[in-house]
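User: quick one
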Amino acid sequence: MISVIQPTGTLALISQIEAESLSRFSQGDLYDLYRNCSLAVLNSGVKTDNSEKLLSQFEDFEINVLRNERGLKLELINPPKTAFVDEQIIYSIQNNLFSVLRDIVHLATTKNETEMLASITHENISIGEIRTNQIFNILRHAKAIKSGSDPNVVVCWGGHAVNEIEYNYAYEVGFQLGLRGMDICTGCGPGIMEAPMKGAIFGRAMQHDTNGRYIGLTEPSIIAAEPPNPMVSELVIMHDIEKRLEAFVRIGSAIVIFPGGPGTAEELLYILTIKLTKSNRHEQLPLILTGPKESEEYFTTLDTFVRNVLGNEVARYYRIIIADPIKVAQLVKESLKIVKDHRTINSDAYCFNWSLNIPNELQDHFEATHANMAALNLHHDQAPSMLAANLRRAFSGIVAGNVKEAGMREIAKHGPFKLSGDKDIIDNLDKLLRDFIKQKRILLSQKEYVPCYELTTQ
Amino acid sequence: MISVIQPTGTLALISQIEAESLSRFSQGDLYDLYRNCSLAVLNSGVKTDNSEKLLSQFEDFEINVLRNERGLKLELINPPKTAFVDEQIIYSIQNNLFSVLRDIVHLATTKNETEMLASITHENISIGEIRTNQIFNILRHAKAIKSGSDPNVVVCWGGHAVNEIEYNYAYEVGFQLGLRGMDICTGCGPGIMEAPMKGAIFGRAMQHDTNGRYIGLTEPSIIAAEPPNPMVSELVIMHDIEKRLEAFVRIGSAIVIFPGGPGTAEELLYILTIKLTKSNRHEQLPLILTGPKESEEYFTTLDTFVRNVLGNEVARYYRIIIADPIKVAQLVKESLKIVKDHRTINSDAYCFNWSLNIPNELQDHFEATHANMAALNLHHDQAPSMLAANLRRAFSGIVAGNVKEAGMREIAKHGPFKLSGDKDIIDNLDKLLRDFIKQKRILLSQKEYVPCYELTTQ
Amino acid sequence: MISVIQPTGTLALISQIEAESLSRFSQGDLYDLYRNCSLAVLNSGVKTDNSEKLLSQFEDFEINVLRNERGLKLELINPPKTAFVDEQIIYSIQNNLFSVLRDIVHLATTKNETEMLASITHENISIGEIRTNQIFNILRHAKAIKSGSDPNVVVCWGGHAVNEIEYNYAYEVGFQLGLRGMDICTGCGPGIMEAPMKGAIFGRAMQHDTNGRYIGLTEPSIIAAEPPNPMVSELVIMHDIEKRLEAFVRIGSAIVIFPGGPGTAEELLYILTIKLTKSNRHEQLPLILTGPKESEEYFTTLDTFVRNVLGNEVARYYRIIIADPIKVAQLVKESLKIVKDHRTINSDAYCFNWSLNIPNELQDHFEATHANMAALNLHHDQAPSMLAANLRRAFSGIVAGNVKEAGMREIAKHGPFKLSGDKDIIDNLDKLLRDFIKQKRILLSQKEYVPCYELTTQ
Amino acid sequence: MISVIQPTGTLALISQIEAESLSRFSQGDLYDLYRNCSLAVLNSGVKTDNSEKLLSQFEDFEINVLRNERGLKLELINPPKTAFVDEQIIYSIQNNLFSVLRDIVHLATTKNETEMLASITHENISIGEIRTNQIFNILRHAKAIKSGSDPNVVVCWGGHAVNEIEYNYAYEVGFQLGLRGMDICTGCGPGIMEAPMKGAIFGRAMQHDTNGRYIGLTEPSIIAAEPPNPMVSELVIMHDIEKRLEAFVRIGSAIVIFPGGPGTAEELLYILTIKLTKSNRHEQLPLILTGPKESEEYFTTLDTFVRNVLGNEVARYYRIIIADPIKVAQLVKESLKIVKDHRTINSDAYCFNWSLNIPNELQDHFEATHANMAALNLHHDQAPSMLAANLRRAFSGIVAGNVKEAGMREIAKHGPFKLSGDKDIIDNLDKLLRDFIKQKRILLSQKEYVPCYELTTQ
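Assistant: Done. Structure below.
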């Protein structure tokens, strides 16, 4: 089956060089990256977290970028049938398909970190600033930064594989946020990444408000495992998890964390690292942890863990609300006013948080190898913010070992990652991970979860 | 509590005379009509079918139309709190509030049937044509007739008090219709009047299609018992049930009937009367009866009744599809192509079915009094179309006795309506109504249903 | 040649009864009215003020309203070729053609003055209010009243047959008004009715502002003599000159008078009558008389006339600005702020001046017959406002005698109208009219102007 | 005087690094370039061709890019007053100001020719293709390439200092093109660069068509001498004259040449070089030379020159139409259909002519130095296309010597450029330039024109 797909959105035109760079016959592996991200988008809405299995079903899938008199079109060979209604591609999928094209082309044709650094050494600009500018450029190029409106983007973090009660709760929170005109930004996949978007769509519908934004931020290494859900109206592909996390906190005006697994723990530790960083002590980025009555235990687990490991004071950086979607929405709304005032006073953009200081330790790409994992400093001989940063890396590695292709290959080859550190830290980590397993928050596709890590005290 | 509401939509301006005609202090009872319809809208989404009880909760509610420098505004005194989010009125409710104003003003200031007849006696125009023109005028004035698009409006009929399985099924059908870009028109209340709209909203959202129309047609005498659901984006108030039913079949391009009670039976008999009318034998108005597996019995009941009473041939006018939303949607889509061709050939408007012949018996207003009910001819000594028309009136009376204020007063005063006719007809009617009661399809608000009718053979 | 024209704007749908009322084969003379107004629109941009001659060129022109599957279309038989570019009708003409249809249908199908009066006798509403409501209804139906914006409509009055210097001056004033975002409303024809619109189009273009409104108000009896110019984006047909004049002052936020002839004098006397009316003493309706250096004499003539006849104090109601377009525009802009404040305080609509009191003497239709003209009271034995009202009628009669079909017939049959009054009034009138003739401001189509009036002192 | 200007269009957001690169305090000379282009835009509509004189009036002008909570704003210190209406900046100027910002930032932050070449050496891509891609990127980034529409952009070339008759003629041609819905692209300055835009605005207005595009392509070295006229709705700044000329022929669907001077001759020779290039023999790019009756001589001069120098056959590449704007517009319209068909068949974009082959000789930047001018090969020992290319360079040099800052400096220092070549070529060139001087088509700001060139036969 061959489908020809017309462009949507802004990338209606592509240059010769851009088209050729994505060709199956081009040198380099850009085509594979492009093909796989596109295939993930075509599997929108399919529930999975086994990317390998999903992709293996469509080995004969191919995608070609063709230029024509109207600009460009895509040729899909053997695409998944679920992407179509009566032979017509579903528009949200079509649109996300062109977002993939846009971002892959941008990735391939703009200056990278090194090139940017080279071109501006004479200025007094740090590597951190360059990276932040890169994130800004990608988001701006994707039109994901809107200058016209007040701080309005609520980042929702949480698991892709939650139970129905949690899904419905997140839907309700999204509904209340949507009723109040807020935009939703998630990691783009199923579960908690979908529910608040769906709720917000409906809340907006009751307000006859068609301007709702449902932003999904993803990265090539995870998109196949977590195909974008069909609510996503703006899909952006960042380079890797570090750029993705930075994009969340720069673009988001408030953060709501729902129940999840190690990925959610990584996200919480990322934002806590930032909040524990001294230079951010005046920054405003509201953080709410919320879930239904039935999930209260989850938040107790998480709360206990971060208090035990990072100190009790860390608790002042977040607020836990159980079983009260209206209160969550009202609190977000209230705190967005503070965010707005703060940014106005500091002349910081409403739509992109320039002033937040993100330590290099969060920006540097952490590759989940056995050596890197083993070398992580999980001791108390460092500032709490640095310990949080290292714990973030630990969870990042666990996520990679669980669902990212490269990480899973490492585990298959060399056995579980080894993590070591101070006894109380390791014990707490152990408790947290065991609770996650008990609560079935880790990788549901396997019959029984075989951990991809080993913990040792040192 | 006093709320001031700004106008939405097209009625941003009102003349002195219009404003005064709606004033609480004006002579006439237009204010009461206006107030009650507005109150019903403000109760959007509230589940009820007891209008009296609902209205009695808000006896101190008042509404004032004020003219100001920007045009007009509404002042609401003691409105229901459910219409607001954080003190802000929900937009869909606000919008419907102005639809009420628009239609009540139109009703009050345009020529009525008699005036129109007087002004054009010299022409060769029948009373039926005048009525159809009136319906056209109301709908056009409400901008509910759109000239730009192909036949696209799917009328969904069914009960306001269905069970969850039926609700979800109607949602699924709506989702499939929405995915295919179809507009939904219902009687505007809860239950089946809501579910397909909600489904279509999500179907459209997946297509990033914000043009969906969710048309609710209602009438003053029922709006309080069936408050508009919050999905309705275009609310139109017709004079009475006969004008409302005609509006459905003129504006609709296809009709889907879901499970319901006596109201749904009235609707089925209305459309069957039209289809049995000889001069309509070439007309195209697809009719599908559908429900989940669990509701199959309901359709058997209905199918048996109309076959037994009106003859087996009547079955060729509808198609029953059980438990297959995609098939329903695809069939509607296919048949809309035929509708389009038919109208093109006959130069009939895509958006308003002028050529359908509606017998006077369906257009004449039937008042549900004991005398009128008793006088109904339920015998075989007439054309099947006329028997269907009379059965339509019988069900109309039963609905009135159940949920309309005037009808309920009648019943309270004089006891149940009496219906008589040929034995087989009455027996079949009895069987149908008993099945409805058994299936709990009649008036759920009372502990036990006390029928508002008595059947006798004659 | 037969052209089929698709609808523009809002009247995309027409009912059976409406279509039939406009048919060539219908009883009544609505068809002729409709045909002639349509023909005038098709002659847009043609310079003429001899309607008879213009219309006689197109005796075989016919127009048919046809209903079809998309709504309606117009069939034009033998239309003027100037309305087309490469066989395609020019959009502004097409649009105005449908405005004619809209207004003629509205005229034919809504309640007239008598019917309205009948339907609301029980209320405390005067005939004057009913007429104002009618004007509101026509304008609202034509969407010519916009509720969203601040007072912004500048009425430009002046002659249809001015010289190039005056045309260019009015263009410059329009340009400056357009630069400042103001909308233009004129009598829709050529000359001063066109120039400020053209100027404003360019002023708006420099502001990339495509929302400019170019409103043309006309009446059936003059439209053929002054075909709408092609700048008109909103054409509205009022019943007669009195309704048209009222529409100007209700919809306008400020009035600018350029050089003109008797029609312009009628307009000036109309607005002065209103301003001299006691109950309007707090009303705000800025009035500027302006022209190029070369036309200074014209304003001296006019100024002298009204001061002499109505008293010196009348001069405080207007301001004369010579040769300074920027000053005119700035003054209009400044005074619109006062208008806005005034209406805000009085809760009067920005877009329709409800509070202006228009005496019955201005609202009553004045038919230009010899008897009516002779009976005009042009003496000082009345309030200045009433004398102004009678002078308005005198000029109205002169315009009718010059360019309106009915008036011209009267003159041809019975000779010039006779006007008599106090000596000083008649002398001043005589001087004014002679100056007009000297300045070639009366009827240019004839070699030598033969006055349609005789003045006698009495 | 300090004005703060809010952004228009798409560049509402700017990164830290971008903002800093434009700062007055940054190293490099980007600020000067940015300041001068901005100043030229602020002088929109001012008639001049002496950039030095114009710029020297505003020596204390400064511009600062400030980032704030809404994105960015510009601070103008001592800007020209003509850019403002009642203290408000004129929108078209404001908009073009942000186009300058957009293009200067793009220039500063994207890969240049060398960087692009470096990043794709492994591919089989020529320097010519890279340059064409660069032009595509600039135009796409400026949103000047629209994928949705048919070939529609008419490039109008001609002088900036024409007489009133020629200006009015170009206005009329523009009016006829506008009536037919065509977009206009010119060099953005006054004279012929303005007139067709103004005409088209008015033609579009008669069609109520607000989608007209008025594209102005300029380059930093000429923008000060030819400030953008206020009709320009899309301003794009290309690197230099070669990129600008390529942009014209890639984006244009047809070319109309009006009377002009050496710049116009350069343009004609540019397009003739392309047409004479063998590989373009099947390309479609209609070329019309047109002017009023009074300018017929100009076209005779030009026609004679190219026939004499390049051979008679060259005449088949253009068509001369005298004094017939409707015919010009109809011919353009007809030939655009052929262009459309041609591109459809060849799958070439309607909005960007990829397939046109532009020889390196036209793409290589020609710097107007005495050495380069003297070295030009103006002999017959080469293909006509190459001779045309060299003549193009000769005229480019003459334009630079006349109005570009760098060129004028050269002339001031070293005296006139020296051009030599075959006798018949030089004689014809001499005749052409003398005719230009006689017709006052060269540099009107000086009392008497002192040529910036000397011709010698060799």
